[in-house]
Specification:
- The protein is of the alpha/beta class.
- It is 26% helix and 32% strand.
- A ten-stranded mixed sheet has the order 5-4-3-2-10-9-8-7-1-6.
- The radius of gyration is 23 Å and the shape is globular.
Length: 422
């Protein structure tokens, strides 16, 4: 879920404390935790929710007054207003959802906060670590569970400029299951050195492989006790890394395209622009857009790109086409496909695709399954989730303002892990 700002207004005297709450809507619900702490004269608040893929999101503009608690979560299209009245050590309140477009109240829900009584032994231990890969200093987090099962889970880095914070919620989830977890900032993101934009997929995979080796050394886990998980661009790297490190225990590939990253970007462009361009023009417009991506991927000369541009520039639909500048930094990652590497793996692998994914081609999971049938992997599973997006959020037409992970997503992974670990 995309979070912008959470504003907390609280009352009374305060020490470090966590409160848990639940919002019930229709036949569904989501849980959340607010952690409050006081430093000097300021109160800091942090918002977490596994279902909303959020972990300790820092809250801003925190103040204290009387016996009430109030905070807002603001997204692109909606404002979520939480209000509570203190009752002993807990809070009773409600959530109101407003449209940002016209400030109309769309719905309201009852929700209470219950004080949590956690001891130090109940808390996952987190340790920030650094390592060197290809001459770059990279930073990550080691998540040590309270009840370790002596197995490791490594998060492969994902698309664009996303740092480790995007996997923190899942890291905490799997640490709660007993896995020792490691996630890190991709080169050029977060605290890590380097430039992800100019790097190839192979270079980014090299960072992942070095990070796995560091993780294994830091935990004293042999590679056969470590599995890897990645989503989107991270998902396409999973079979490559498994083929290069055959000792690894398993792989989990989420929202992985069957073709190149260029094909996925083009598919996403088509889905986002078909209504504006029109069904009668979308085929030719898509071909023109492909020339732009081909130039970006260094598959086409600027001269040929300009010939295509000049031919169609006066078409009404051309304004929806993106044409790169001549001096743009090339993105060689666009030419990478993970499909050949699915044929080379021997480890168990779980492939999950949402059937409402508008990024990767809709038949990706079928093509990947055909490749896996040619591999030496004896324990692979292909799972599709209805009404589920590229980011594994669930499409709920009745309550579109809640971006919640698909209810079967994490549960299905948990059950699959139980099977392959036995």
């Amino acid at each position: 879920m995309r979070f912008l700002i959470i504003i907390i207004i609280f009352s009374g005297k305060l020490v470090a404390q966590s409160y848990s709450g639940t919002v019930d809507y229709g036949k569904s619900s989501f849980n959340y935790v607010i952690h409050l702490s006081k430093t000097d004269n300021n109160t800091n608040a942090y918002f977490s929710s596994i279902e909303m893929n959020a972990y300790e999101i820092p809250c801003q503009r925190t103040t204290l007054e009387k016996d009430s608690l109030k905070f807002y979560v603001i997204s692109d299209y909606y404002t979520y207003e939480y209000e509570y009245i203190k009752q002993n050590n807990n809070f009773k309140g409600h959530l109101m959802v407003y449209s940002n477009e016209n400030e109309q109240l769309l719905n309201s829900f009852e929700t209470d906060l219950i004080q949590e009584n956690k001891t130090e032994s109940d808390v996952i231990k987190k340790q920030d670590l650094s390592f060197t890969s290809n001459g770059l200093k990279l930073y990550g987090t080691l998540w040590e569970p309270k009840n370790s099962i002596q197995k490791g889970l490594f998060f492969v880095t994902s698309s664009r400029g996303n740092d480790r914070s995007g996997t923190n919620a899942e890291a905490s989830y799997f640490a709660d299951l007993g896995y020792t977890v490691f996630n890190y900032d991709k080169r050029g993101t977060g605290k890590s050195e380097g430039n992800w934009q100019s790097a190839t997929i192979e270079e980014l995979c090299s960072d992942d492989i070095n990070a796995i080796a560091f993780f294994a050394k830091a935990t004293s886990f042999p590679l056969y006790q470590i599995g890897i998980k990645g989503s989107s661009q991270g998902g396409i790297k999973i079979p490559y890394i498994l083929s290069k490190m055959p000792e690894l225990k398993f792989g989990i590939s989420i929202s992985c395209p069957s073709g190149t990253l260029l094909e996925s970007d083009l598919n996403y462009w088509k889905n986002m622009n078909v209504d504006q361009v029109g069904q009668e023009n979308i085929i030719i417009a898509e071909k023109v857009q492909k020339t732009g991506y081909d130039y970006l991927a260094n598959n086409l000369s600027y001269k040929k790109l300009n010939l295509v541009k000049n031919k169609y520039v006066n078409q009404d639909w051309f304004k929806y086409v993106w044409i790169p500048e001549e001096n743009i930094t090339k993105n060689y990652k666009l030419n990478f496909s993970g499909l050949p590497y699915f044929k080379k793996i021997n480890q168990p692998i779980l492939v999950i695709q949402g059937l409402s994914d508008n990024v990767i081609p809709e038949n990706s999971y079928r093509i990947i399954e055909k490749a896996l049938k040619k591999s030496e992997s004896k324990k692979y599973e292909i799972l599709t989730l209805e009404n589920t997006t590229h980011s594994m959020t669930y499409l709920d037409k009745e309550f579109p303002y809640f971006q919640i992970l698909s209810p079967k997503y994490l549960d299905s992974i948990t059950e699959w892990l139980k099977i392959i670990e036995n």
